[in-house]
Amino acid sequence: MSLLKVIRINTKHIFTKHNETHTLYISNRKLSIVPSVYDQENPAPKFFSSGIQVLLKRLTRPEFSKVFRKRTNNNTAVLKTPVYKFLTDEELNIEKEKANTNADRLLQMPPVVKLHEQINDVLSKDPALVGYDNSTYMFTDITFGVANEHRIIVQRNPDGTLESCDRDTRKRLNQIYFPMQGRKIREPKVFSEPEKFNGLLEGEKYEYILDRACVQYEPDERKYQEITSITYQHIDLHSKFDLLRSTRHFGPMVFYLTWHQSMDRLMLELVQSGVVREAVLLAALRQAVHNDLSNGEDYNALVSEILPRPIQLTKPEILSEEDIALDTKCTELVDTYINTSSSMKSQQALALQGFREYYQQLVDLSRGLKKAHGNA
Amino acid sequence: MPLPPASGTGKYYALAAKSIRLIRQGCTNRPFFHISVTQRKRLNSQPVIEQLGSYDPMPNINNEKLVALNLERLKFWLGQGAHVTSPVAELLGLTGFFPIHPKSYMTAWRNRQAELDRLTSEKEAAKSTA
């Protein structure tokens, strides 16, 4: 092998060795994401408060073609063939209502709660039992109709102490005696082996990860919160929010990002795609969670105006004057948000400027059209 | 032969004596027990009145022996005056549901004693070789 070839192959090594910066190295390894869990303040009261739930559901943007898409999972053996019917208006409305309730059920968000505490509950100590057996005895009460979390599960250790089992053991024994479909007694390799987990992240199988984590773990487990945290951060880093829209995981993700004050990339995405109304909702969410915006009342007032209206992702050709007024208000409010509280000011301001110009054109066009039709 | 349902298939007489006992259900070299209530004079191979739990005497991968107990039904049958055999009473004692059975203390003491004897004999053997 010639010297030139050796140098060419090892250039990268030489280069990195000479410009050794720690951060560069870590970011190359794709392991720079540090999971953060809800272990300080309890997020549950805020997450479950009705105002925040409404905002999160609205931001999810439920789209029925995605909510009711066919899934190839092992729960359903055979996919049903669709049925086509002629319906009257009343019957159609009833069917729509049904679809709405079904969508609500499918989009029910996994709860966001604080980490659980360890169980340290020694019931009795009996040193006279030392030597009785070398293994632990696990006793499970299998009385009918008791919920998993309230079941009596105790253990007698070889040193004679009788105590309540810790969380992991409880989960394992509950799974042994009352198995939950899809949950495994041993942790799946997807979660225990970092390479496999990273492979899924690289492949952008976010929904798969989150669905699987929901089945495998309880929402107050450390592992669950770490996995979801890494996934949310990965989505945020690559701005792949669209992959989670219309799924039940979008709400908790937005809540996570807002809770950790890192929702500015989502805000940028909203402004770039021209959905200023949702940008206002997001800012209102931040106000509701942290209460750190200067003009909080304005957001709440505008939210009550936006929520009764249908979701408007693309603007219609002819805008009504009400819509124009609302959108202008939204744009102004987003502008103040960007100037006062955002951490990505320049990019967001640029995106907002683009939206403004586009919107002005739209307004001119629609007013011109109305004038031409003689309706104005 | 498939196992009978936990609700039991055995006929019984209300006034006849009942017994809560371990009934071996495993196969050769693999013991596994049902904790069942049955009529006292019946054989273990005969249908039981009701299954109340299970006991796996072979330690699993985490060195644990698993016991399941339907405490609600157990209390019911105790209230009916069912007799409890000593292996079951020992298990219930370890659970904290009954007082610890004297046999458990005896076994523990004997095991400790055997361990002590083994240690002393090992020491002596070491001394004699040295």
Structure notes:
The complex is a heterodimer of chains A (376) and B (130). By secondary structure, chain A is mainly α. Chain A contains 17 helices and four strands. Chain A is elongated, with a radius of gyration of 27 Å. Chain B has 130 residues and is α+β, with helices and mostly antiparallel strands. Chain B has two domains: 18-99, Ribosomal protein S16 (S16 Ribosomal Protein, Chain: A); 100-129. Chain B contains three helices and five strands, in the order ββββαβαα. Chain B has a five-stranded mixed beta sheet. In chain B, strand 1 (18-24) and strand 2 (33-39) form a beta hairpin. The longest helix of chain B has 28 residues, at 102-129. Chain A binds chain B through residues 123-124, 126, 128-144, 152, 154-156, 160, 162, 173, 176-177, and chain B through 53, 59, 62-73, 91, 94-96, 100, 104-105, 107-109, 111-112, 115. Strand 2 of chain A pairs parallel with strand 4 (64-69) of chain B.
List the main descriptive attributes of the protein structure presented here.
heterodimer, A: about 375 residues, mainly alpha, 4-stranded antiparallel β-sheet, 17 helices, 4 strands, about 55% helix, elongated, B: about 130 residues, alpha+beta, S16 Ribosomal Protein, Chain: A, 2 domains, 5-stranded mixed β-sheet, 3 helices, 5 strands, about 35% helix, ribonucleoprotein (chain B), mitochondrion (chain B), ribosomal protein (chain B), structural constituent of ribosome (chain B)
CATH architecture of the largest domain in chain B: 2-Layer Sandwich
Which overall shape of chain B is indicated by the principal axes computed on the Cα atoms?
Answer: elongated
Structural class of chain B: alpha+beta
| Total of DSSP H or I helical runs spanning 4+ residues of chain A | 17
**Widest sheet: strand ordering of chain A:** 1-4-3-2
**CA-based gyration radius of chain A:** 27 Å
How would you characterize the largest beta sheet of chain B?
5 strands, mixed
Quaternary organization: heterodimer
> Strand order, biggest sheet of chain B?
4-3-2-1-5
CATH topology of the largest domain in chain B: S16 Ribosomal Protein, Chain: A
Kindly, what is the distance between the CA atoms of the first and last residues of chain A, rounded to a whole number of angstroms? Answer: 81 Å
CATH superfamily of the largest domain in chain B: Ribosomal protein S16
Order of helices and strands of chain A: HHHHHHEEEEHHHHHHHHHHH
Along the chain, the helix and strand elements of chain B come as EEEEHEHH
Q: Give the strand tally of chain B.
A: 5
Beta percentage of chain A is: under 5%
**Biggest beta sheet summary of chain A:** 4 strands, antiparallel
Tally of DSSP β-strands of chain A: 4
Tally of DSSP helical segments of chain B: 3
